[in-house]
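User: quick one - fold this with zinc ion bound?
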Amino acid sequence: MQAVPKSLMKHLATIALILSVLPCSVSAGAAVGSIHDGHIHYDQDVWKALPPADAITVLKTENIQRALVSATPTEGAEMLYQQDKSMVIPMLRPYKSWRHRYLWFNDPELKAYLLEHLARVPYRGFGEFHVFGEDVDSIPIEDMIEIARERKLALHPHTDLEGMHIFLQKAPDIVVIWAHGGFNVPLETLQTLLEDHPMLYIELSLREGMLDEDGRLTSSWRQLLTSFRMRFMVGMDTYKPSRWADLPEIAADTRHWLEQLPDEVAADIARNNLDRLFPR
Ligand SMILES: [Zn+2]
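Assistant: Sure. Structure tokens for the protein plus zinc ion:
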């Protein structure tokens, strides 16, 4: 076999480099099509390195065409919404700061804070917010649920099973999107909750146990996603700057398991469910 000339080797390396930076929609994941993402953060720690226009470009490069966007502070979601109103679905995060994340659910001024911010941009829900266990059972959170009920807003909690039970009991008539699908809550428990609570939706960023060692969806997950295909959505969860840098890989991984589902099921989970919940 003839040796490959050096000049050609150099050329191939250049092509490989160009291909590696092309949008992944061109190659892997083309079958799934666009993603409408249920979990993007645009926190203050990326504003300088990734101004709003660049953040939108990063999302579009990965063929993410709509997204629930929240931020700490929530002004990040407002900035990204102002940059691209057709892509960004702003979600109001009830924290004023990271410190406030551990206090907000007992803050007597929460209601005033929420009402003031709701007047700024057309927020479509509250989230993603962190609260666990019996902390969910608080007067400020009841106020938040009441506002969500009046204004037809969704809730996007990052909580444990105990916290989720309290939300479902207090807000059975409101769209509740469980961030990370409870991470490691048993799949059978998720199934029971989906059966019992028609307004519950599951967002799958960082969800554990879906894939086997070879990166294939487990049969029980395939079955759950297919049986409840109208109740799931994907998310990239850019909760720290490195997640923005890793977005191509995270999006490719997401597309990899979506492709293992029947086309119509993948389309529902990749984008249709989000569009049904948040019509333009
Ligand atoms: Zn989270």
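One thing worth noting: Residues 128, 158, 179-180 surround zinc ion (CB under 6 Å).
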